[in-house]
Amino acid sequence: MERAASRSLTKAKRFFSFKRKYLAIPYSVFLALFVIIPILIILVYAFTGSTEDGTLYFSFDALASFFTSPTKINILVVSLFIGMLNTIICLLIGYPVAYLLANSKVNTNKILVLLFIMPMWINFVLRTGATRDVLTWMGINGGNHPYLATMIGMVYNYLPFTILPLYTTMIKLDKSQLEAASDLGANPAEVFIHSVIPQSVPGIVSAAEMVFMPTISSYVISDTLSEGKITLFGNIIYLNFSQSQWNEGSFMAFIMLLLVGISMLISRKFDKGEQRVRGGGLW
């Protein structure tokens, strides 16, 4: 009887383990149709040209057009600068906020976190339009202060994406390590510098990744708040595709993919540290 029951249990385990593999099929199909195939199409258009009859041929014209254009290079440099500046500002504001939320002794930290992430539930274009109206009322409009208005809009829109990963990392900090540092004579500043910050590095990297790349590729914020006076990399990609310049637009999208890949490689170095502090949920 025991042997028969054991065989039945083994067959059941094989059945469910066999069926479990098929649960990934819908996601695999979605990934292929809407991620892998579009990327391949971008790569094809980035390194090809077309004749009058629509025949494709291998070409570096889009690459040459990009790297021989001072305007496009300047737009990329400005976009990288604004992306880094926005990331730094969001970290400087979001880090202490996330730290205070994670160490709040009152039972309201969940409500406060909810208030910070609520703007993420509102349509992106509506948020940007409302920001423009508020800034215009304050006398900071795109006509007079395009960079200031754009940076305020960037920080406002991406600050929640900074606070959330930092908060989820900080609520999982090793409290015993902090207590041990205090017991060994470290003052609060030393505990913060030598224990809190190193443990929160995975959250910092994750927050930077969630802010830097979207800032560079954004075009709604700069176009709306600067009244068209600031052109970011996302704007020029959108402009190329809207004017049916598929090859040049695809090559610039390919550059964005390279930047994403580089940021992912950097973040992978901190995966081990993130695994160490991971555990539990946000709430």
UniProtKB/TrEMBL annotation:
Parts of the chain that traverse the membrane: 21-47, 73-99, 111-127, 147-167, 249-266
Matching Gene3D superfamilies: MetI-like
GO annotation terms (biological process): transmembrane transport
Entry's localization field: Cell membrane
Keyword presence, Nucleotide-binding: no
Chain ranges of the ABC transmembrane type-1 domain: 76-267
Keywords, sorted A to Z: Cell membrane, Membrane, Transmembrane, Transmembrane helix, Transport
Membrane topology: Multi-pass membrane protein
Any single Gene Ontology cellular-component annotation: plasma membrane
Annotated family: Belongs to the binding-protein-dependent transport system permease family. CysTW subfamily.
Protein name according to UniProt: ABC transporter permease
Species of provenance: Candidatus Alloenteromonas pullicola
